Amino acid sequence: MNGKLSSSDEIYPERYLIDQETGGVFMYIVSRQKPLSEGQNQVLAKEDTAIYPPGYLRFLQQFGEGTYRGWINVQLPDSEVLKPFAGYGLWECDEDSPITEQQIGECIAIGTTVDGDFLAVHPQTAGLLWLPRHSEHVKAISLQALEQEDEGMYALVLDEIYLQVYGISPKDAVYYEPWTGTRSHLFLRLLPGQDQLSLPELAGVCQADFPPDLSIETPYACFLFYRQLGGYVRLNYAYQQEVAVFYEQDAQQAFAVIEQWLLSKGCKTIS
Q1: Distance between alpha carbon 104 and the CA centroid of its chain, in Å?
Q2: Concatenated DSSP letters of 95-158
């Protein structure tokens, strides 16, 4: 193996958001972002920026909708999705709550997590609102003053939200996965057997044969990002056998190389 997924390194050039003050890499962009439509941009241009968190609208205009650091979806303002929740009684709205039950239906959702939590704003309420799926209490989020004045500001806001909600700062590399609408995937299973590699060992060999543009490894999974794929290889340590490849439809050549390599290492496709 020569470490090349394709004959060209320019299929998906690396895209980074740069910290203008330090010049350092701020955020890895997984694939070519899907620009907002002219109509969507016109709607955003008419929005009252004062009710949204710093940098939110500029971030959307620059990168489009997508998933930040694998945990929260950055979405266009949605004033409809929370309306039905006003009558469900999912959250306690007592005197300590930042909003009333009626105001829940008036909230504008601007994000959701992979666990089903809502990030929202209310026109008459200062700050952000966190409506958790697994808790009865709506949380008000007050942001620290931020000096950065570009589209990167909202990435800092999301990290601050993570800290306030979960009590720890995110530690893995910063990346953003735009919703392109042209993403494909393949799921495989690493079959157990004598002299067979374990999933962490397979991840190590893959990194050696195909050095990734970005890698993230936790006790539960390993993500290997490749600009030639416009995506990544995910090895699910928690399930011990699952391997998944996420790639853009116009990166078929790079995908075919990594697929054949995984098959040669004992993986089988899951139909």
Answers
A1: 25
A2: TTSSS-HHHHTT-EEEEEETTS-EEEEETTEEEEEEE-TT-SB-EEEPPPP----STTHHHHHH
Alpha-carbon gap, residue 89 to 159, rounded angstroms:
29
Exposed, middle or buried, 175 (CB in 10 Å: 0-12/13-18/19+)? buried
Residue with tokens 């990346």: 175
Give residue-wise pLDDT tens across range 178-221: 999 999 999 999 998 888 899 999 999 999 999 999 999 999 99
Q: Does residue 65 sit in helix, strand or coil?
A: coil
Give 254's contacts (C-beta < 8 A, 6+ positions apart).
Answer: 5, 6, 11, 226, 228, 229, 247
**Radius of gyration over alpha carbons of the chain, in Å?**
21
Contacts of residue 80, defined as CB under 8 A and 6 or more positions apart, other chains included, come to none
Instruction: Report the distance separating Cα 42 and Cα 7, nearest Å.
Output: 40
- pTM score: 0.87
CA distance 76 to 57: 9
